[in-house]
Every structure is written in C-alpha cells, then in structure tokens.
Amino acid sequence: MPARVLTIAGSDSGGGAGLQADIKTITLLGAYAATAVTAVTVQDTRGVAAIHPVPPEIVAAQVRAVLADIGADAVKIGMLGDAATIGAVADALEGFAGPVVLDPVMVAKGGAPLLAPEAVAALASRLLPMAAVVTPNAPELEVLAGAEVADEADLVLAAQELLAAGARAVLAKGGHLEGAEVADWLVTRDGARRFTSPRILTRHTHGTGCTLASALATGLAQGRPLAEAVVLARSFVAEAIAHAPGLGAGHGPLGHNWRLVPA
Fold it and tell me: Could you tell me if 79 and 12 are in contact, meaning their C-beta atoms sit under 8 angstroms apart?
C-alpha cells in the first residue's frame, strides 16, 4: 500500500500552488494524495483576484472523513485563512498520531494576503504544537517570531523562537534572503543543520512553498527521517523549478512532472 498524505489547503485555479501543487508532488513522489479544501481561489500567475472560503465545519468534516476511512500517514497543512478554520482543523486532527507538516501560508506569491492578521495567534497556539515540522519563509518567520529576519543568523534565531513557542522542528527557508545560493536551516532541540543549493534565477517559482511542504510530508509518510525528508523535498523543488514549463505572464508554475519528461 502506498504512503497516504492528506493535504489541507486552498485550491489554486492556475494549478501552480495549493492543493493542485500538493497533489502533483505527492503523486509523483509515489504516495497517495487525499485533500480537504479550505478555500477556492480565483488566481493565475499574475495574482489572486478573489477568495471564497469553505465553511470551517465543512473543512473539518473533510478531514474527519478522510482519516476515518482512507487514513493518513502524514498531514500537510497549507492555506487556512482565518482563526475559525484553524480551530476547526486543530479539532479535527486531535488524536492523529502521524507527522503534521505546517506551512504557515500568509501571503500569495503575488502579494495577496491569505491569512487574516488576527489568525496568527490562533495558528501559533493551536497548530504549532501539533506540527512535527513547520516550514516558514523569512517574512513568515518575522510575523510568527516577532523579530526581523535579515540574514541567516536571524533565520536561525527566529526558528529557535518558534521552538520555544512549542514547535518540535522548524525548516526555516532562506529563499527570500539575498545571495548566490539558497540556504535553509532545519532547527530542532538537538541543534541546527544548514542545507544549500544554487539559486535559480527565474520568475517561475509559484508554488515552491506548497511543493516543498508536501514533498516533506510525503517523505515523512514514507518513513524517512526528518533530515532525509528535507533532502528529498529540496531536491524535488529544485528540479521542478529547473523544469518549469514557462507558463503565464507572471510568477509561473513549477514543472512538477519533471521525472516524466524525457531527457
């Protein structure tokens, strides 16, 4: 039986991020993808035009239905939108014993807000302690930790603040920082480990955060240790960026199907 991953996230009509990116990633990494839709977004590579939230009780019902019948070996959480949905998801996941990967989605690639400001406290109090690993980028770390993140040292210090707030592990993503390489830090109570890769200069990066988190969840669902799952996820994202199909006039989607493309 393949590993099972439940992704709880918003739908992206452009197919580059959200549930669509998650399903592609999970499937192409050899696992089974199930979903709980938190919102329907109207978006393309140029930005988000509208958001239609799914009622929190329906989001929770989707989660419970999947867990009760199909089950899950890992859960990935993306866009939640507001405090009510955060609470509903946290309640629905009570008793789930597998790893939870929390991607604290706050702003879309084009700049549209995807999490209400008043919901940040709920995310920190209800979901941070449930997560096996949290995957914030630098701007998200600034909000969650309440500290400026200008370099890698700040990145690690802010991640340590999240550990103190209850997170078990933090993969602090450095893509927003400047430099010829992208450095991400896996910070746990046992220490910090740096992962690097060359920066790919391209506008086709829509959905990188969603893809990384769902690849990480897939690795954990398949029984990989956390650091090994990080290596898998970062490698998958790098290849997907390198194989981007060049679609759209704005921030284009990744080439999630790079493994299927003939060399």
Answer: no
Contact by Cβ (8 Å): 101, 131: yes
Residue 112, pLDDT score? 66
Quote the number of domains for the chain. 1
3-class DSSP state for residue 6?
Answer: strand
Render pLDDT for 198-232 as a digit per residue (tens, 0 to 9): 999 999 999 999 999 999 999 999 999 999 999 99
> Coil, helix or strand for 62?
helix
Is 109 an active-site residue?
no
- What's 153's domain CATH number? 3.40.1190.20
User: Which of these is catalytic: 81, 207, 219, 252?
Assistant: 207
Contact assessment for residue 35 and residue 22, using Cβ atoms and an 8 Å cutoff: yes
Considering the candidates 14, 87, 209, 255, report the single residue annotated as catalytic.
209
Q: Which of 7, 41, 85, 205 is catalytic?
A: 205
Contacts for 99 with CB less than 8 Å, ≥ 6 apart:
74, 75, 132, 133, 217, 220, 221
Active site residue 210: yes
Catalytic residue among 135, 210, 252, 255: 210
Residue in 19, 72, 34 with CA at minimum distance from that of residue 220? 72
Is residue 24 flagged as an active site residue?
A: no
Neighbours of 260 (CB within 10 A): 9
Q: Domain limits at 180?
A: 4-260
- The catalytic residue among 10, 173, 211, 218 is 173
Rounded distance, CA 259 to CA 133, Å?
26
The helix, strand and coil proportions of the chain, stated in percent and rounded to the nearest 5, come to: 40, 25, 35
Q: Indicate if 208 belongs to the active site.
A: yes
pTM of the model as a whole? 0.95
Catalytic annotation on 85?
A: no
